[in-house]
Amino acid sequence: MTTVSTAELHDLTHTILGKAGFSAPHIDAIYNHLLYNEFAGRASHGFVRIKWTLDYIKSGALYAPDASPVRDVDMPAFKHIDGQGNIGILAALEATQAAIEGAKTAGSCTVGASNYGGTTGNMGYYARQITDAGLVCIMSCTSLCLVSPAPHCKPVNGTNPLCIGIPTGESSLPIIYDSAVTPISWGDTVLAALNGTELPEGVALDANGHPTQNAKAVVPKGSLLPIAGHKGFGLGIALEILAGPLVGGKAGKSVKGSDGLFIQAFDPACFGDKDAFYARTRQYIDEIKNSPLDDTQIRLPGEHSLNQQNTNKNNTKIELSEAVYQKMKELAA
Questions:
Q1: With contact defined as beta carbons under 8 Å apart, do 64 and 57 qualify?
Q2: What is the CB neighbour count within 10 angstroms for residue 131?
Q3: Where are the domains of the chain?
C-alpha cells in the first residue's frame, strides 16, 4: 500500500479518462464514485477500475465515452435509462435520480437501465442516495460472466449484486445490504492477483475449472463459485434476468462488463405512518445490537462501510494499492 493525495488521484483520473474521451463533468462523477468506495473500504470498487474502463473501451463494450445517458421512458412509476454506450456509473446515477423522483411522485417507481458498458459500480453508493431521500430500494446489475455453478463447469452468470437499502430515520444510518452472489467480488480477486495475496479456500476456480487459492490462476480466465451452493447459483440466475433481459440488457457470455441495472424504489409512507415505521425498525435494531451474550459487537448490513466513509470523507490522502497507483501513473504518462 502507498499513501496518495486525493488531489493527485483527481488529476490522474482526469488525465487518463480525458485522453479516453470522457468529458470533465463525467470524469468528476466517476472520480467521486471511486473515491467514495475507497473511503468506504471498498477498494474492489475503487481506482482499480480505471484500468478496467480503458479495457472496456478497447473491447468495444464501452463505445461512446462522450455520450450522456437519456431517459427514453419517463412515466411517473416506470422509467428506463438508455446509457448511450457510455460507462455504467453514469447510467446508474441517472437511474438513481429517476427512481427517487418517481417514488416521491407516485409512491413507487421501477427503473431499468441498459445499453451501457464497463462498470456499474458499487450498488451501495446509489442505495445510500435513495435511502437519504427516505425511500426503500431493491437493486441489482449484471456483470461479467464469471460465476460457475460448481467446479469443472464453465461460468454462466455474473457476480450480480443484490442490494437492499432501508432508511431508519433522519438521525440514523440506513441499513444497506449489498452483496455479490459470490463470497468475494471480482474486484477483490483482481486486487489479490495484483498484490500477490492468496484467495480464501473454496471461492474460485482456475481456467480449467479446478479449485485454487492462487488469484493469478483465476485472473483473467478463471471463475468464481456462488455463495451457499445451489441457492446462491439460483439467486444469481434470477438477478441476471431481472437486471439483464428484463430491462433490455444482455445475459450470460454476451455481457461485456455490465450493461443492465434494475431498481425498485418506494416510499414506506405508502404502507402507513413513516415515523411509526422508523420507530419499529429502530426497536428491532436495538434487539439485534443487544443480542450478544458476551462482549461481541454486532454490525448491521453496510454499517462498517458507512462509518468508514463518514470518517474518511474529508481526508486529503488515502491508502492505495501500490500496483494500482503505479498503473494509473503509467496510463497517465
A1: no
A2: 24
A3: 62-179+230-271+309-316, 183-225
pLDDT of residue 111: 98
The structure's pTM equals 0.96
Quick one: cell of 201? 479456500
Residue 213: Cβ within 10 Å count: 15
Q: Please give the mean pLDDT across all residues of the chain.
A: 96
pLDDT at 26: 98
Q: Per CATH, which fold does 62-179+230-271+309-316 belong to?
A: Ribosomal Protein S8; Chain: A, domain 1 (3.30.1370)
CATH number for the domain formed by residue range(s) 183-225: 3.30.60.50
The pLDDT of residue 225 is: 98
Please give the grid coordinates belonging to residue 145. 460472466
pLDDT, residue 257, reads 85
Residues whose CB falls within 8 Å of the CB of residue 88, separated by 6 or more in sequence, listed in order: 113, 116, 117, 118, 119, 120, 121, 141, 257, 258, 259, 261
| pLDDT at residue 170 is higher than 80 | no
